[in-house]
Structures are given as structure tokens and as C-alpha cells.
Amino acid sequence: MDAIDRLISFVNNLLGNWISFAKTLYLFTHKQARYSASYVESCRRSYRMGLTCSFLPFRYDENAKTISLKPFPKWASNLHFVLQIVICILHLGMGFHWNSTIGKGVGLDKAGKKELTWKKIVQFYYDSLSGYTLVIVILYRLRANRVKPLLTFPFHMEIKWCQGREGYVTTLLLGLTACATGTCLLLPFIYLAASLLRPCLPFLSVSMVTKSCPTWASLGEVNLGVKIFFALVQYYYWIFILGIYLGIGWIALVYPGIAAKLRIDAIMSELKVGVEKGILGFREVQVLQVLTNMFWKFPLMQLLLGAWLVCEVIALYSVIRLAGTLPLEIFTYFSLICIDGAALIHVHFKLLAVPCIASHEMFDYRKKMPKGGSRWLRRVIKSCSPYQLKMADGRFFDKSTALVIWQFVVDRVVMCLIM
């Protein structure tokens, strides 16, 4: 009965994820619907998907009246942790084995070596992803208690300070959430299907037991039961990877800043009608800033940014240099990565800078008040500092960060093209 109950729960969650995804798309495309909406449901669903196969020792309490977490069985979270470490090491080992055998290109003619070039790039992409993920999994586990407030506090802040407020929902965060949710729903099934239909692809775990593989597109020879087992392994692998990078890496990095911006907007509304005591609410923003920076401090932020930028550089280089060489499926995949990566830099990083810009605007508004506000207000403002999501190297996300990082990506792609 337990197995049946879990299967029913899985199906219900999957249907709920698709329904939530459809709602987010509806809000994204209908301005009138956004006017009376909030970010709570869309972001909460993304968080829940990020915790589906997570090794973190908690889950959302679906029976609670407020958004809160409940303990997850320790043995289950430990099992997820061990499995994910083992699978990451397995994929790294597969990559090293391929590079030390077929990847050397011994005995290949000119055409074969040209084809080997894009295959090495594809293989390097998946090896890098596994390596980054292995370290990030360990850091997430070590900082599990630090991420808990980020999964609840921003929701409470939005619910409390935006109650009755309308028209504050924009397309930027909704679009980012829809992208993350859609990818988490579709990509694991794509890799599951690839394991069944293209078992010779060397970055799929099923390739280890597949025989007779003259090309990557070959069907190979492998037992159906073994093929299904490795397809499920690949499905699990991509569920937890996407949960790490999108569910937590995208949304849990952005949403706290959006909640801080909404709180600053509420403070600004009070200041404009002469309620100076509203500035005390900025202490909540400062608490949220501290919680966010404690979780994302060195080296986690660098690893996450590094993983995103490496993927974008590889994808752009492959699409530009190897457009006529790549198979259609690989070219389409890398083209999508290019689009997602560009959106990540120009939308995601822009959202990360929003609370910093809003806090500076609030300080500037205080200066324009008659006499700069009362003496008490000036003293309180002097004890506050702008919201800064730090990169752990002294810099922080501001309005110019997206352009600087995009310039970094373009420079690296140009350097690779010249070499």
C-alpha cells in the first residue's frame, strides 16, 4: 500500500506542477490577470520542485496554514545525498574514460578528427556540469540550515506587506519562473527518452553497458531491462541537477531580493505620506540581506556563476564555429542553451540588482525631503546601508553587472574563436 500511495502522490505532484506551470504562463501572457496576482504560488511551486529529490533534510509542510517547512526523514535525505554524489562521480568517470580512449582520436582520418572536435566539446560540457554539481551538492548539504529562512521568510514578507496591493507583479520574474519550471518538467523526460532511443551517447550512463556503437546515433545492443534501469538513473540525475541550478540556484537566489524590493516599496509609500517610522521596516530588508549573503558566500556564488558562464561560452562557441558540423539535435540543444544563458545574464542578473537599486532610490528620496527629514530619520538612515547581494570577492550585483558579465562571455568566445 505504501508503494501505491507514493505512486499516487507522485502523479498528483506531477499534475500539480503542470497546472502551476500553465498558470504561470497565463499570468505571463495576460496583463489583466497579473494585476491582481502575486509571486507566491509560482515561486513556491519552483521551490517545491527543487526539493523533489533533494538531499536537504526538510520539505514544505503542505498541511500548514502558513508557508513553513517540516523535517524530512534523515535516512531518506542521506540516501538522496549518497546517490547524487555517486551519480556525479559516475558521470565524471565516464567522461575521463571517454577522453582517454575514443577521445584521443587515434587512427582517425581528417573527417573523423573534425567530427571528434565537436564531440569533445559536448563531452567537456557534460563533464564540467558533473564536476561543478558534485561540489555544489556538498556545499548545499553543509549549508542546509542557512537556506531554510530563504525558503520561507520572503513569502511571509510578500504576503504581509503586499496584502491588498495590486499591479506589482511584472513579467521578468514570472518569465524566469516559467523557464525554470518548464525546464524542470521537460528536460528529465527528454534524457529519459534519449537513454531509451540513443543508448550510444557517451554522456548517458546507459552507454557504459551498450555494445556495438559505430556512431552516437546508433541503437546499439543492450538488454531492455538494463536500458530502462539506466534511463531511470538518468531521469533522477537531471531532476536533482535542475533542482539545484534552477529551483534553488535561480529562484531562491532571486526571490528574496524581489521580496526585499517589495518591502522597500512599502517603506517608500509610508515616507511619501509623512510616516517616518516606516523606515524601521528596512531592518527586515537588512536581515534578509544577511541571510542571503550567509548562504551564498564564497565559494558557492562563484561556483554557481562559473557553471552558468562555462555552459554559455561552450554553447556560443559551438553554435558559431561548428554550425555546419553539429548534428541537428546537438545544434538545437546548444542553441537553446545560448538563448537560456543570454536570458539568464540579462534578466536574472538584472533582477538580482533590483533591491540594490531600490534601496539607493529610497536613500536619495530621503535627501529630497524638507531638511532631509527629521533628525531621528537622518540618524536611522545613517545606520542603514544599501541592499547588496555580494559575489564574495568585494563586488556586488548592481545595474551594470549584467553588461559586465555579458562582456566577459563575449570576450571568452572571441578568444576561443581566434585560437
From TrEMBL:
The chain crosses the membrane at residues 79-98, 124-142, 167-194, 235-258, 303-324, 330-358. Keywords: Membrane, Transmembrane, Transmembrane helix. This is Uncharacterized protein. The lineage of its organism: Eukaryota, Metazoa, Ecdysozoa, Arthropoda, Hexapoda. It comes from Folsomia candida (Springtail).
